[in-house]
Amino acid sequence: MTVRTAPTGTESTLAELLPLSDARGWHRAACRGDPNHEAWFPYPSEDFAYARTICASCPIRAACADFAAETGQSGVWGGHEFDRGRMVRE
Ligand code: SF4
C-alpha cells in the first residue's frame, strides 16, 4: 500500500492515511488526530521540527520508520524524513 499525500479537500487525520493494519499498531500512532497534516505530508515537510517532536513520543516509531523504508514512502515517518524510501533527514 502506498501512502504519499493527503487527499485534497478532506478532513482525514494522518492516522487514517496510514496502512490499515493492526500488525504494526498504527492505532497507537502519536500523530493520530493531529490537525497539522502538512508537518508529515506532503514531502518535503512544511514543519519537520513539529512532526519530529510528536514522533519522539510515539510507541511505534521504529516500526513506522521501517515501514517507510521498506515500502518507499515519502514524508515524515518515525521522526525521520523520507524521499521514496530513502532517509533524507534524521
Ligand atoms: S512515528 Fe510519527 S509518523 Fe509514525 S505513527 Fe508515530 S507519530 Fe505518526
Automatic annotation (TrEMBL):
It is found in: Cytoplasm. It comes from the Bacteria. Residues 30-87 form the 4Fe-4S Wbl-type domain. Keywords: 4Fe-4S, Disulfide bond, DNA-binding, Iron, Iron-sulfur, Metal-binding, Transcription, Transcription regulation. Its cofactor is [4Fe-4S] cluster. Transmembrane segments: none annotated. Belongs to the WhiB family. This is WhiB family transcriptional regulator.
